[in-house]
């Protein structure tokens, strides 16, 4: 089963990446006090010096990694969010702790919609996330 959702089970992750011969996707688990689970379990891979991450439990995507892989400034994420106020309540911001997981996380469907709008230059490198 590929990226979006697979059947909820107690034995494995709910969200999984799409297969891609050009990307080496690995699993990680990062401890953080910013999440009620106490950690964030992810699928991850490097892109343009950034980490592309997908939370394997709830499908949240680290949008900061995609945005910076496009060559954009992290501060500009605020402009996107401000232009769509309905997004704010659905975002998860991780501050402090492990640098790799810091930034703005958003639900899979929202990240996919935004990526279709702004991430055309790296679309081939987002195949593990969005197919």
UniProtKB/TrEMBL annotation:
> Record's InterPro entries?
HTH_APSES_sf, SWI6-like, Tscrpt_reg_HTH_APSES-type
Organism domain of life: Eukaryota
Alphabetized GO MF terms: DNA binding
| Region (Disordered) location | 1-28
Positions with biased composition (Polar residues): 1-12
| Record keywords, A-Z | DNA-binding
Keyword Iron: yes or no?
Answer: no
Q: Which residues form the HTH APSES-type domain?
A: 29-131
Q: What is this protein called?
A: Transcription regulator HTH, apses-type DNA-binding domain-containing protein
Q: Which organism is it from?
A: Rhodofomes roseus
């Amino acid at each position: 089963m590929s990226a979006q959702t697979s059947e909820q089970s107690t034995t494995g992750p709910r969200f999984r990446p799409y297969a891609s011969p050009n990307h080496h996707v690995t699993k990680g688990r990062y401890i953080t006090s910013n999440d009620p689970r106490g950690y964030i379990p992810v699928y991850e891979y490097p892109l343009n010096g950034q980490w592309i991450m997908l939370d394997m439990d709830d499908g949240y995507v680290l949008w900061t990694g995609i945005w910076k892989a496009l060559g954009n400034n992290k501060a500009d994420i605020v402009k996107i969010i401000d232009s769509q106020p309905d997004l704010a309540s659905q975002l998860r911001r991780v501050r402090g702790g492990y640098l790799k997981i810091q930034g703005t996380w958003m639900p899979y469907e929202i990240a996919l919609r935004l990526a279709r709008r702004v991430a055309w230059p790296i679309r081939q490198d987002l195949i593990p996330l969005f197919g």
